[in-house]
Structure formats: structure tokens, C-alpha cells
Amino acid sequence: MWDYSEKVKELFFNPKNTGVLEGANAVGDVGSISCGDALRLMLKVDPETDIIVDARFQTFGCGSAIASSSALTELIIGKTVDEALQITNQDIAEFLGGLPPEKMHCSVMGAEALHAAVANYRGEEWVDDHEEGALVCKCFAVDSALIEKVARENSLRSVEEVTFYTKAGGGCQSCHEKIEDILQALNGRQPEPVKVAAVKAAAPALTLVQKIQKISAVIDDMRPQFQMDGGNIELVDVEGDTVKLAMSGSCMNCQSSGVTIAGIQERLMLTLGRPVRVIPASAPHA
Amino acid sequence: MTSAYMDNNATTRVDPAVLQSILPYFSEYYGNPSSMHSFGGDVGKRLEEARTSVQSLLGAEHDSEIIFTSCGTESDNTAILSALSAQPGRREIVTSIVEHPAVLSLCEHLERHEGYRIHYIPVDRLGRINMDAYEAALSEQVAVVSMMYANNETGTIFPIEAMARMARAKGAIFHTDAVQAVGKIPLNMRESAIDMLSLSGHKLHAPKGIGALYVRRGTRFRPFLRGGHQERGRRAGTENTTGVIALGKAAELALSHLEYENTRVRAMRDRLEQGLIERVPYSFANGDLDNRLPNTASISFEYIEGEAILMLLSRAGIAASSGSACTSGSLEPSHVLRAMDIPYTAAHGTIRFSLSRETTDAEVDWVLTQTPAIIEQLRRLSPYWGSNGPIQSDKGFEPVYA
After folding, report:
1. Do B307 and A181 touch (CB under 8 A)?
2. Which pLDDT score, from 0 to 100, does residue B246 have?
3. Which of A152, B4, B19, B170 places its Cα 20 to 30 Å from the Cα of B321?
4. CATH number among 3.30.470.20, 1.10.150.240, 3.90.1010.10, 3.40.1190.20, domain A6-122
5. CATH of the structural domain B16-256, one choice from 3.40.190.10, 3.40.640.10, 3.30.300.30, 3.40.250.10
6. Cβ of B402 and A130 within 8 Å?
7. Of B62 and A199, which is predicted with more confidence?
8. pLDDT at position B165 over 50
9. B89/A contact by beta carbon, under 8 A
10. Closest Cα partner for A85 from A60, A119, A109, A57?
11. SS3 of chain B
12. Is B344's CB within 8 Å of A34's CB?
């Protein structure tokens, strides 16, 4: 069974704003029947003020798809159309208290339904440019379609390059075989091997300064990935095994900051060789 | 009754008699059966008794044809890899499109990385194997045929004996993944053409972590795990003594309940299946209904999604499983239902109810009373469902697909 948050369970068992909305003047139908999800979002928009006065949904999908749809309607009612369009799938996931990495696509579908409904309201044509594949990297919630796309567009040849461009494989590293398979299929030859770090001598207990230096080195190492997405990470504090990080900017595909933090945490544990907890620090967004 | 365990194809409860039989071998007789002291107690002897029990359940001629392993997956991998390495000149494998991942993933790996040619034999709408395609795929190039005895999702039984004889005529080794069949239908290896057969303990009321591979005497065999002398050098590694003893006890109990499985359990399954289909409109049963395991019902509830059904069933105390994408973490619905060409809107809403000898009539009643309202509740949320039935296709819901 999935480890759903209490909020997801609550909204699945008792979803809000369900059913057909009579007199809707904006309807968005999106879905991916192959992955078992389809969603109709119906909005009533006041043409004078552009405010969404009511929203309802019908969803064919799993527990988190239904909860994501309910969350979406709650987030947009009362907002203007332009305000509502600012809502991202990350906002939906955060409203739900997080989603398992395999289920992030449910929040993506919610955001797409909103864009489709707004396009319908404005008389525009909406084109779905979002591809979806099997989940490869659990730490950073990256799927095969994205890895293929980025690897093709950038002629990537090694797992390290894929990690650099997409973050996939940068956490616990368990998915490296799958990434190698994707690269092999794409390039028709064996990808370049991952450089294995030299085996370290059994390290004596680290002093706080040494620990901070190691953590900083990991963060410096990962920073270019975040900067490519127009974001950044900074080390704020280290208390025992708790590492506080400030994250800023948006990420191309780190579908929520919670998932990103889990990935950084895996990487730090690998480097320090002990359990580490990473928590976001309350630094203002850049 | 306010709960019902209907997921016995996933795993079964350890029978209390099985549990009792192994407890002393954790606490008192914990010695290694290979050691020369008394802490091993009679454990070596008990392992051989267990082997004899499994032999009886399979109707095998010799007890040495039974090799204990850690699980069904290990048995499947061992069988296929052994057959390949014993016949290096043959570079093809025949299997079905609806196998368990324990076979399919290995075949895909062998295809991609080792250059083997794999024939995936299709099935029809009822999950029956295409015998013409099977016959066409067999040749002197085939090293091994691996076909499941009965499907884990629909219970459909393949004509394994006939297929084994056809494979033998071409000199191919025939393996069957019988993980779902053993203990539910009678087997007689003595008069069979099957060369190797996999089984798993936890599907028949033994604990998880124990399995077995039947290897017919005379079948060329190459071990998967090499090391010590255990299992006559065919599966090295210290014996899972408690697991083996448990599997022996479970095999004995399974044999004595075979008739019950095929009468009482079958009757309860039929009552459950017919009752659900009568009570829930737009639902149907999957598989070869006249030729399947007695304990399995695969029912499609159209226009809704499986995980949502399971979550609501679970809240009502009912354990079942689905062929849906969303419960497995993959994006595609069950490869078995897709291979059977079940429409997407039905495949996603397919629930498997699997019973066992422990299932009661009260549990069946509980599922029958709870399920209709759950299906109705989810259909009210579905964009494919109108006020009183599915939306007609001409004015239907046609989302933009990713």
C-alpha cells in the first residue's frame, strides 16, 4: 500500500467539489488512460471579474488522482483565472502534504486540466506537451520519457551526464542500470562507465568542521544541476545529523521540493556513511 | 464478520499447524544440519521428510527430484538458466506473454544482453494460449520452454501436459512456473512430460522465503548457486531448515485439502463471482471460466480505477488486489489483461479476489454486501459515468491524452 499522507486519504475518502457543474463555462478534459487517469475539470468563471466562482471535477483514477483533483478545486475557487494559472503541480502536491514519487503525475494531471479548462474558456486550443514514462529515479521522481528526451536533445553518453542534466540517478544510485539501458537503446552502444570513487579508509568520527566541509562539497557538486533549472541550494546549518538547506528558484523537473530533498539526503548519507536528515530551512525565496 | 481476506494468490496465512511444526527448530534444534553434533537434533531427517511430502504433493517418482530454493523466482531463474547453459547450441526460448515477471524480466534480460531469441506466445480474449503460435515457435533451436501452469491474475490453466509433450518432441527442456497451481489442482509428475516445475511455499500456507524446484531425474542440470554440498550440490547455501520443514508440513496439508479446494472453495468462489456480477451492473469475469483455478475470480468493474476500489475495500476490511497500474508503480495496466485485449476502462478497474481453504461463507457474504456501494460511489465520481450508466460514446468523455 502507498504511504499516502493523511490529507490525501482524507480527500480521497471525502472529496470536495465532485460531480457535474451545471452552467460551467470552462471545461478541461485531460488524461492518460494508459496510466489509468482521466480528469474533467469544470469551472464557472464570472466574465466580468474573471474570478472562478465555482469548480467541480470528475476523475477516473487512483486515490491520489482523486485527492489531487479535489485539492485543485479547493486551490482555485475564488481566484482570478490569471491567479489560478500560477498554481503549479508542486502547489497541489504541497497542499496534499506530499505525494509518493510514483504518484507525482497525478498532480501534473491536475495542473494540466486547469490549463485545458482556461484555454477552453478563452477559446484557445490547448496542446499537451507532457510525455510520461515509467518511473526510473525514485529519489528525484524522474521518469524514462524525460531521461530519453533530455539525453537525445543533449547527446548524453554517460550516467553521470544524465544525472547532471536531470538529477536522475543522483540519489541512492539504485537506478543506474535502468539509465544505462536507456542510453544503450538511444545510442546503440554501451554507455561510458560511472567513475567509481576510490575506497575510503575507515573514517574516524568526523569533527563538526570536517562534516560541514564534506556536506558543502556535496552541495557544491550538486549546485550546477539546480542552477541549470534556474534554482539554487545553500547550506544553512548543521546540527548533529540534521542538515538545514535553503532552496530557491524553480526546477525544471524536480516536481516538488520534498522529492528533491529526499534525493539530496540520499546523496549526503552516501558521502558521510551515516544517517542524515535534511530539512528545508526557512530562508526567503530568491 | 467485518473483514475478508481475499488475496490468497498474493500470499496466504501460515497454517497454525505449520507454525507449530517449526518452532522447536528456531529455539532448541538450531544446529546446522551438516554439523556433527546433537544441536542439529533430527533436523537432517526432518528435511528429508519434508522432501518426501513435497514429492507426494507433486506425484514425483523420486524424492531427489525436489530441490529446495528460497522462492518461486529463484526456482524460475534456476530452471531457465540451467536449461540454457546445459544446451549451449540452442539459442531460443519459448514463453508466453502473460508470464509472471520472474520469467518475463529474465527473458527480456537474456534477449537484450545475451542475444537469445525469445518467442512470446500470445493469448486470446479468455487468456487461452495460442497453440498454433506455440507449435510454430518450437524448433530444434529452442533450449527451453517456460510456461506458467495457471495464471496468477485470472487463474486460467494452460494445457501444460500437451505443451510439454510437444516441446519434448523437439528436444527442448520444458519448465513450468506452477507457483499458483501447486496445492490447488492435482499433479502427477510420474506420468508427465514436464522436466522442471517451480513452486513457492507462501502460496500454500508455508512462510515466505521458501520454494522448491522439481527437476526430473535425467534432466541435464546446472546449478544457479554454487558452493557447498547442500541439495546434492544443486543448490548451495545453508538450508533454510525451518522453511523447508514448514513447506513439508504445508505440502502434506495441501494434499489432504485438494478435494476441499476443488469443491467447497470452488463453490464459494462461484457464489462470490456470480453474486458480484448480479449486484453490480457493467461488471464481468475474466479468464477461461470453465478451465481455471478453483480459488481465483478476476472481475472487471467498468469505468472506475482499481486502486481507488482497493482503498475503499480496504477501509471496509476487505483485502483484494488489482491488475491496475497504480498499485504497482508502473504506468501500464496489467500486462495479462492487456494481452487478453480487455478494454482499458475495464482493465484498470479489474479486481482479483483469491480465496483459500481458510475462506469462510461469512467472508463471502461480507464482500457481497460491501462491494456494490463502493463501486457506485466511485462511478459517481467518474467522467465516463452519467447519472444512470455509462455516457454514450457520441457525446462522451474524450480527454486529451498525454
Report:
1. no
2. 98
3. B19
4. 3.90.1010.10
5. 3.40.640.10
6. yes
7. B62
8. yes
9. no
10. A119
11. CCCEECECCCCCCCCHHHHHHHCHHHHCCCCCCCCCCHHHCCHHHHHHHHHHHHHHHHCCCCHHHEEEECCHHHHHHHHHHHHHHHCCCCCEEEEECCCCHHHHHHHHHHHHHCCCEEEEECECCCCCECHHHHHHHCCCCEEEEEEECECCCCCEECCHHHHHHHHHHCCCEEEEECCCCECCECCCHHHCCCCEEEEEHHHHCCCCCCEEEEECCCCCCCCCCCCCCHHHHCCCCCCCHHHHHHHHHHHHHHHHCHHHHHHHHHHHHHHHHHHHHHHCCCEEECCCCCCECCCEEEEEECCCCHHHHHHHHHHCCEECEECCHHHHCCCCCCHHHHHCCCCHHHHCCEEEEECCCCCCHHHHHHHHHHHHHHHHHHHHHCCCECCCCECCHHHCCCCEEC
12. yes
Q: State how far the Cα of B308 lies from the Cα of B306, in Å rounded to an integer.
A: 5
Which cell numbers in the block locate residue B226?
Answer: 554454487
- Structural fold of domain B4-10+258-381: Aspartate Aminotransferase, domain 1 (3.90.1150)
Which of B327, B381, B384 has its CB closest to that of A66?
A: B381
pLDDT at A33 over 80: no
Is residue A256 pLDDT above 70, yes or no? no
- Please give the CATH number for the structural domain made up of A208-280: 3.30.300.130
**Rounded distance between C-alpha atoms, residue B121 and residue B101, angstroms:** 15
Q: Which of A29, A36, A135 sits opposite B399 (nearest CB)?
A: A29
Which of helix, strand or coil describes residue A76?
helix
d(CA B348, CA A62): 10
Asked if A37 reaches chain B (Cβ–Cβ under 8 Å), the answer is yes
Is B326 noted as a catalytic residue in this protein?
A: yes
**Statement: residue B11 has pLDDT above 70:** yes
The average pLDDT across A16-36 equals: 85
Active-site option among B326, B338, B384, B386: B326
Query: What's the pLDDT tens digit per position in B47-71?
Result: 999 999 999 999 999 999 999 999 9
- Residue A175 falls in the annotated catalytic set: no
Give the C-alpha separation, B103 to B152, whole Å.
Answer: 13
B332: which chain A residues are within 8 Å (Cβ-Cβ)? 34-35
For B208, the grid coordinates are 515466505
**Of A119-128, A199-208, B159-168, B324-333, which range is least confident?**
B324-333
Measure in Å the smallest separation between the Cα of A23 and chain B Cα atoms.
Answer: 17
* Tens-digit pLDDT profile for residues B208-230: 999 999 999 999 999 999 999 99
**Residues A162-189 pLDDT 10s:** 988 888 888 888 899 999 999 998 988 8
